[in-house]
Amino acid sequence: MRTRIYVIVMLITAAFAACHKEVASLFRGFEKPANFNTPAYKLENNPVTEAGFVLGRKLFYEPRLSRNNTISCGSCHIQSSAFTQHGHDVSHGIDDRLGSRNSPPIMNLAWSPLLMWDGGVFDLDLQPIVPITNHVEMDETVENVISKLQQHPDYPGMFRQAFGSPEITTARLLKALSQFMVMCISSNSKYDSVVRGQGTVFTSDEQAGYEIFKTKCSACHAEPLFTDNSFRNNGLSIANNNDEGRYTVTLNAADRYRFKVPSLRNLAYTAPYMHDGRFYTLDAVFDHYSRQVKNTPNLDALLQRNGVLGITLTTAERVQLLAFLQTLNDRQFITDPRFSEQ
Questions:
Q1: CATH architecture of 190-332
Q2: What is the pTM of this model?
Q3: Measuring CA to CA, which residue among 105, 114, 262, 122 is closest to residue 181?
Q4: Phi then psi dihedrals of residue 116, to 5 deg
Q5: Measuring CA to CA, how many Å separate 203 from each of 1, 192, 200, 211, 323?
Q6: Phi and psi for 298 in degrees, rounded to 5?
């Protein structure tokens, strides 16, 4: 009987060890996709380690970052929605307070020199301070966050593993979060497989849509990130809250109503669209660009050519363009166990 129990225990232990080894083997460090350029983030100043990444992931899903311990980064950036807050036009924060902008996706941030819709943050290591201290997001102070983490049974040991000592500082907190976020790379869509020559090819509609994209969209949504990280006024009507975009950061009149060009990756998961989430479908987005562009201050020159506002799209072109945009969806990214709440 004892021998039988011993054997069962050993089998369970072996299975657990194998499972743990399998999960651990998922971590491969930061790997630049073959078709991507050099990252903007200075990885040499914060090398990604497994311990740092695991700590950053735990912090990303940690509600203690908020005043009443109810809101985490993952509350507004949900993996299954490519780390957006699916279904909400503007973000919902602490006490269900409403923000003024749509939660942007967290993907490929290592290649983003300026962050947020208005570019108000120039370093990923500083970005989490904004939601933590924002009145409608987490409404907390960094000092209180550190105090709560110091009292938690897990965090001192995790900080020791990641940084060599159990001391929890603002810099270490932010660097750990960055190690998680720079690892959130979306680069395994059908498009990526095609351009990397991995044996996949576009359908005729997808190829036709790709040609339309290169002619009519790529000036702003540059490959391979499908954003040029610029700030542009795309002709949206001015909302009731008169959000002036990048102007609120630079106070340069030329930046009024300019917002960051979003990536077109993972559009199947990131609705609603635009900085304020006003469009719930891609058809509505196409309608905007083809016949609803407004001549607001600082309207981008690409949307006002020869006295015509917007981008001309025939019915057939819309179908083909949509077919191509679907090739930018990366299901592997939104289901990757490395990025899920553990």
A1: Orthogonal Bundle (1.10)
A2: 0.90
A3: 105
A4: 75, 165
A5: 63, 14, 10, 12, 9
A6: 70, 25
